[in-house]
Design brief:
The structure is a single chain. By secondary structure, the chain is mainly α. The chain has three helices and no strands. Helix 1 packs across helix 3. The longest helix has 44 residues. The N and C termini lie far apart (62 Å).
Length: 91
């Protein structure tokens, strides 16, 4: 595993763990358990396990990015609709 690949995993980990903790899907114990399993795989050099975790993190992080993007777009549409309704009521 290259340094660049490990950095991608770290970035994905921050995305995944932050989202899952923030959403209440994970507690501190879950975060610690997943983090320890990944750290163990990396330290042991088990390429299959490392690639499994890297792929899992990448899939989860991509889903989170897409989900949060959809939520932000929906929020923008709602705000725009509310502003337009206020303007109609004021005008």
């Amino acid at each position: 595993m290259t340094d660049a690949e490990l950095e991608v995993m770290r970035t994905d980990w921050r995305t995944v763990s932050g989202f899952k903790r923030g959403s209440g899907e994970w507690g501190k114990g879950d975060e610690d358990e997943y983090g320890a399993a990944m750290k163990e795989a990396i330290q042991s050099g088990g390429e299959e396990a490392i690639h499994y975790w890297a792929a899992w993190l990448a899939r989860e992080a991509e889903w989170i990015r897409r989900f949060t993007s959809m939520v932000r777009l929906a929020e923008q549409r709602i705000r725009a609709e509310m502003a337009a309704a206020r303007e109609r009521q004021a005008g």
